[in-house]
Amino acid sequence: MRAVQVKEYVKGPRDLAVTTIPDPTPSPDTYLIQIHAAATNFFDLLQIRGKYQYQPSLPWVSGAEFAGIVLSTPSSSANPKFKKGDRVFGSSQGSYATRICAKEESLMPVPSGWGFLEAAGLMVTAPTSYAAIVQRAGVKRGDYVLIHAAAGGVGLAAVQIAKACGAVVIATAGSERKREVATDFGADYTVDYNKEGWADEVKKLTPKGRGVDVVFDPVGMVNNSLKCTAWGGRIVIIGFTSGNIEKIAMNRVLLRNVSLIGMTWGSYSKEAPEKIPGVWEDLFRLMNEGKFKGTVYTDREFRGLDSVGEALGMLERRETWGKVVISVPQSTESKL
User: Fold this and answer.
1) With left for phi above 0 and alpha for psi between -120 and 50, is residue 280 left, alpha or beta?
2) d(CA 175, CA 164)
3) Is 112 in contact with 289 (CB distance < 8 Å)?
4) 5, 60 in Cβ contact below 8 A?
């Protein structure tokens, strides 16, 4: 098969190359999937440099999210959830390739009416945003919700989920194009977080300038967000894409009676596996009701595994919005 294999850690995505390696051999408990689309993630950039918390033993195939067609089912299962030919999406190490092996719990059916490109980026962003907005922050109708980096993958998912809960969404983004995208996905207001005094601008958008009820933060902007969080508000910390792990002014947290809430979806499989089915049930319901749509970056196309380096480079430079997804043509199509 063709794959982006990492034999040694690289300086950056431009150093990645496509090579031919043997097809993966499924273990008794895994499916073999033919990949038709692969989604990028910021942690891919850390992993190829050897700086991520999870590093496979060299050599390994990069990428972690995909959508495709089941080629074979687990030999150990007499009644597998998916059958040969089913369209699935999921998450497993090695998605920048033409084939991949994955366990049943890491796969989901492609939603009705969705294509591979739209589905490939669902496995990480959608449940992360849902668990943060609904389960951790408890967003309800009428809440004012501030979503940082709202034009990113988790951001656009959060905008849609918060709107489905009946919230008023204030979206921050660093460019006019990204703010336009956030509006297209349902944000009521947009604010440039590169602009001095943006927190004051956010407060002015809330009733009597009281501040927002909930902050969704995948960037690392807690300290500044405290300036525009209402008394008794909640700040949900999703990550630190800015690269800065903040030291929080806890006296301000105390005086404002604010709750700081951590959320990492990856821990749910170990710590709260019973909650996972309900999250996906609600997400599929929102999709079927037309309240949640794919967040694929559409300003340009990435076709073929040869474009993985370019796609990751644009993601790293923050030149994209939504989920950057690469189409993966098969051997019967042009350009692997």
Assistant:
1) alpha
2) 25
3) no
4) yes
Q: Which two tokens stand for residue 127?
A: 């449940």
- Identify the pLDDT of residue 144: 98
Residue 74 has a CB neighbour count (10 Å cut-off) of: 19
Helix H or strand E segment including 314: helix 308-316
Instruction: Please enumerate, as own/partner, the contacts of 78-85 that have beta carbons within 8 Å and a separation of 24 or more.
Output: 80/31, 80/104, 81/107, 82/31, 82/107, 82/109
Cβ atoms of 98 and 2 within 8 Å: the answer is yes
Residue pLDDT, tens place only, 111-160: 999 999 999 999 999 999 999 999 999 999 999 999 999 999 999 999 99
DSSP designation for 207? G
Contact (CB, 8 A) for 302 and 319:
no
Helix (H/G/I), strand (E/B), else coil: 148: coil
The answer to whether 131 and 33 are in contact (CB under 8 A) is no
- Please state the pTM of the whole predicted model: 0.93
Paired with 81 in beta bridges are none
Residue 328 C-alpha from the chain's centroid: 19
Total residue count of the chain as it appears in this document? 336
- What are φ and ψ of residue 261, in 5° steps? -125, 125
Classify strands 60-61 and 30-39 as parallel, antiparallel or unpaired.
unpaired
**SS3 of 76-123:** CCCCCCCCCCCEEEEECCCCCECEEEEEHHHEEECCCCCCHHHHHCHH
Cβ proximity of 265 and 218 under 8 Å: no
Low-confidence residues of the chain: pLDDT under 50? 333-336
Residue spans of beta strands (DSSP E) within the chain: 2-6, 18-20, 30-39, 60-61, 65-72, 87-91, 99-103, 107-109, 144-147, 168-173, 189-192, 212-217, 229-237, 259-262, 325-327
Query: H or E element: which one contains 271?
Result: helix 268-271
